[in-house]
Amino acid sequence: MSIEDVVIARRIAAQEAGEQVVPDSYQGVTKQRVRYVLTVIDRATDNMVDVVYSLLCDELSWYTRAARQELRFCDGASVAHIGTHVGILQRERNIKLDREGRDYWLKPLWEVGAVLKVYLDSSSAFSPGHPVAKSSNSAYSLSDDFKAILQAPEVEWRALAETWMQADVQRERLALQAAQAQETAATIETPHSRLIRLSRDVYAPRFLVGYEVVYVDDGDGDRITDAETETLAAAGLELTIDDAMPDVLLLNRETNHLWVIEAVTSDGEVDIHKKQSLEAFAVRNGKVGVGFTTTYLTWKKTAERQSALKNLANDTYLWIQEDPSRNMCIKQ
């Protein structure tokens, strides 16, 4: 059974027994207190209130191996866990929050440091950051200092929240969180991260002379940082959450031509839909055109994917890291 099915069954059982589905408070914090604090920091949408309340949940983790270590939901919950808690338990419906909406109900919270990105590592502990892109082990928790505001006495919480949101305090907090996440990332290089790095550092210098990298998507969640936004803007580009995010985006400033590299270890080839989407992106940003390359680590992986899918778009390129001297053009 999926986690949603299990939680629906649990909710129905509680309802039939006349029991409360969700308690009035978690860790001494009511949902009303959550709303008050989020109002002070200008984050008080219904979705964000419910998300923060879910991250106070102190029952055993919904990650099986984390639960074996007696870790709790609040120590780290995935987007699916949070969406299920909000939609199925708190709102007593049979549908979780839409994952694609996380940029609206999670991102504003991690941007101010109220919510932390954490990762369930091989030791079944939660480490800072999201070092593995699109991993089911990527999770979220409340920061300790934000939780302290939620749990503060009635006469103290407002002043604490106002101080917490001061610009200099916020910058220091976010810098510390970023440094902690970087420590985790430095210990892990996934196959996807490795292929992105090789596509950027080996393929691009050999076959894309004159192009410079303006964006690399090797993360999860907050897919365009402020620094990346500035770099893109300097190149006359704007990526939005509605665009097909490339793994590597390059620009030839002399010709005003873009190039996209998609590094594939599980999925994400340059198919016709992605090609058309990024061609529209190039037009919207005033570029003369865009080229495309799909990269794989091995011939074996290429064959596994393409023998079944045959989804590489016409007039795009294919590069295989174990056969790096060839840049193959797809003609159908």
From TrEMBL:
Signal peptide residue numbers: none
Regions annotated as coiled coil: none
Protein's GO biological process: DNA restriction-modification system
Single annotated GO MF: DNA binding
Start and end residues of each BsuBI/PstI restriction endonuclease domain: 191-329
Name this protein carries in UniProt: BsuBI/PstI restriction endonuclease domain-containing protein
